[in-house]
Specification:
Layout: E1 8-9, H1 20-28, E2 32-36, E3 50-54, H2 60-67, H3 70-86, E4 93-95, H4 105-124, E5 129-134, H5 143-155, E6 158-165, H6 179-190, E7 198-205, H7 219-222, H8 227-241, E8 247-252, H9 268-275, H10 296-315, H11 319-342
Parallel strand pairs: 1-2, 2-3, 3-4, 4-5, 5-6, 6-7, 7-8
Length: 345
Amino acid sequence: MANKYCPQFQMGGTVGEGGWGRALVNENACPWALLIEPPEGASPFEPVTQIIARAWIGGDNIERQYTLAGEQGARDYYERLRPFYDVRRYVDVWQGPNEPFVGEVTFWRALVDFTLELDRLMRGDDRTLAGGAFSVGWPLLDSKYLVDLLPMYQGCRYMIHHEYSAPRMQNREGWHCLRYRKIYKALNDMSPFPLAPLFIGETGIDGGVAPVYRAKTGWKDYCPGGFSEYLEQLRWYGSEIAKDDYVVAAFPFVAGANQEWSRFDIDEPQMQQVLSLDIAGGGRLPLPEDETATDAGTLCEKARWFLEEMARQREVGNFKRADDIHYSLIELLYRAERAAKAAGC
């Protein structure tokens, strides 16, 4: 199965002349890269890489003023950003407003009007829009709601969803990460026409989701085993999205992070590991029995960590994962006992 992970960059210097992001993308011949506030002028990457980009105009609350104004909001939004787009002609796909609020019927209907008008305006200037950019847990899985959104999925050339979870990516599987499958199945059931292909515009671990509710905490806060622990979760998610042909690419958040998002930051060696993931094996999560240490101290430390993880999994209702850890933990504790006796403890 193909690895669909591609890099997403926040700080422009990371992909500027001499920046590690530029070298990484070109050396790996990445099919896509996502840029937040892309630089002016020419593309920082070789032509083999297509670019999806975001224009930041002050925050989601600023963009919301446009989406709530429907078609007129789209015209105003486009006129505001047209000069920004004009000096970045190399961008292949533009994301619209980020994580629009769609919690009430008037809001989501206004968003549909906004998106279809923005798509029309962009096509008129030979630009491509990716609509949606929905936050974690959206859209709602309600046919009365989805039938209103359907024209976006039919009319846009691409759609975008964001998918995170915490403390692990597998928590609330299908409702946070992999929610898109439920959405696309429901929409396909009501549509005689093909739906737009999908970008997973942001993914990974984000403590801002229910039931954790710890905003701006990322993988560095929930992976005591370090990046290797996070990488196994990305392997799992990568093996799942590879099964769905309509998923074009997924972008872990984020490389070259600013200070505000430092707990999510993925550095150059780490991003290389993501791009090099072999996901053919399906990405089984590590268990206590997989621990390779042999000394009693390390084995006891790992046992403690897995006990804490087992408790966390039970708290969030992931009972299968908790049981898997429980039974595997017995083997690890036997090994710790034998190591301790061998050491004369």
